[in-house]
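Bump. Still looking for Cupin-like domain-containing protein structure tokens.
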Amino acid sequence: MLLLTFLLIQSYIIWISSVDGNIPFPKDMNIHVLFPPIIQTHESIPLGHLRPLGWQRRADGPILEDSLNIEPARFYHLFVQGNRSVVIRGIVSALDVLWTDSYLSKRYGHLNVTVAKRKQRLIDTLIMMPFKTFLEQYRQDDLYMNTIIPDEMKTEASLPSLITCGIFSKRLLEPILWISAGDTASLLYAHAQNTLHCVLDGRKDFIIYDTSNKYPHELNLIKQSNGDLFSRIDVDL
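Sorry for the wait, here they are.
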């Protein structure tokens, strides 16, 4: 899965040359899974007990979709200022034909990228490694990349036209490139900034909670230095 996100991330980073050695075991790369899941009840088991996040209740409904030709003013007033989620399909060109693992390794493998290794005290631990090393490991190891896109790669990843004019172009903070493989799940986040997620290849499912600016105590949220909140709950259980 290739995902380009526009926001600002500030985190503690550890520099290493490689990750802990494990016996390689290919991940399940099947992306044809049912989502949202079919919720089944059982009289003796609480709904969603020991199941991944999203199994605890039925979804209220799909996220609103809008046209690819949406006017910037409508986008700003209805979704940015209105603090609402929206899906716009086809807003960026797919890069899966160009950005293959072999191409990225050969052309950009020398670059250092930020990688998250999950399942360590339920907190994403950020590490730095050569892009080539990540590409050799991420299909087997529990790793995903979330790095500020290097300047050398920006010429191949154009910005969505929706945010290249007016006030949007002046308030863009950082473009973040995500790469993962298999069934990768991030922590539950509440971002302090508006974010625009652009799926370039593969599939990414979003679970969005409308808390009306109030977060349940059960989420056990931790505030980061940049204002983001993340939950310590295990999204895989």
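The first strand starts at residue 2 and ends at 6.

Edit: fixed formatting.
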